[in-house]
Design a protein that fits this description.
- With 77 residues, this protein is α+β, with helices and mostly antiparallel strands.
- It has one domain.
- The protein contains one helix and four strands; from the N terminus they run ββββα.
- A four-stranded antiparallel β-sheet has the order 1-2-4-3, with helices on one face.
- A hairpin with a 2-residue loop joins strand 3 and strand 4.
- The protein is globular.
């Protein structure tokens, strides 16, 4: 799930969330959200400003989720 949070339009931030089984978080940069995605555990990664390291970390999580989705779908779909 990808969302732009704009509670305050002058301080928007990006939140990208994954089901827990889809990604790892080796740097513990994400927020664990127990039962927070349709009753399932997940991780949310937030970017509130331009941060090259944060963007790269998020890209790795996106790639990881993409690869894991292929594996999970081949078992469950």
């Amino acid at each position: 799930m990808v969302d732009v949070i704009d509670d305050n339009p002058d301080e928007r931030w990006l939140s990208v969330c994954f089901y827990g089984e889809m990604v790892t978080d080796p740097d513990e940069a994400g927020d664990l959200i127990p039962e927070g995605l349709l009753g399932e555990d997940g991780y949310c990664f937030d970017l509130s400003e331009y941060d090259e390291d944060g963007i790269q970390y998020l890209k790795h999580r996106l790639s990881e989720a993409h690869e894991n989705s292929k594996e999970l779908c081949s078992k469950e779909c």
